[in-house]
UniProtKB/TrEMBL annotation:
Segments crossing the lipid bilayer: 56-76, 82-100, 133-156, 168-188, 200-218, 253-275
Name by which UniProt lists this protein: Capsule polysaccharide exporter, inner-membrane protein CtrC
Membrane topology designation: Multi-pass membrane protein
Compartments (UniProt record): Cell membrane
GO molecular function, one term: ABC-type transporter activity
Protein encoded by which gene: ctrC
GO (cellular component) term, any one: ATP-binding cassette (ABC) transporter complex
Amino acid sequence: MPTLNKTTKPGEQAGPRWHQKEPTFWEGIAIQRRVIWALILRETVTRYGRENLGMLWFFAEPLLFIVGITLLWSYIEPRSVPAGTVAAFAVVSYPTVLLWRNTANRVTKAIEVNQALLHHRPIRAQDFFYSRILLEFASATGSFLVIFILFVAVGISHFPANLFDMVMGWLMVAWFAFGFVLTMGGLSEVSEVVEKVSHIILYLMLPFSGGFFPAYIVPEPMRNYLLLFPLADCVEFFRYGYYGDSFPCYYHLGYTIICNLALTLFGLAMMTYAIRKVEAT
């Protein structure tokens, strides 16, 4: 809490001066948690409105994408899916695309469009990144859980062969998305060119994301080149958690963890650089 101290200098009259007590580490964490939550609520209301149907769209928007892609893929000849149906394959593949693509779209120019809020002392520029990332992760995860549970209930999908590996695979995809989104968000703040070509970059990543076809159908040595992209490894591991040994999956967790860590550090560095550049202008 602020404290009132009276200080005087030689030759001047004593007057009140307010000194703000610096928060402790844990107090600072609590403050930033409340700030990020407030920004999430603000972004949710701004995007979806205050009505119940507007809030329902929070899950319905990505859910409709998943349903549409699943129906489309169901008409594909299922020779590339040796276990289960194409619909079951789609529901454990396409949601991983939403996790990184939608988040990257939302974080672009996040500081610039919210710069007016920085006059509030508790709000930091990086909070704009974190709040939008958490919102998109929650939306993608929630919509995936809804449709996956529904598909299991009606018999289209089955219960995961290894639930722990499936959860860890989803977290690995989210980890990659976090580092990638920070990188794209930071670059978009410092370069207009990156902002303009960001959609092209996202589209070019789709064939290498692992979300549209399994790695085992790619012949050698092209498969090894594909798996150099850590996102494909993450998706393959996630898919292994669902199918287990009934579906051939290829991944290298040690390599993927190192790549995700390097991407996260680079993304944090880009975000910090972008914040400093914005604050200097």
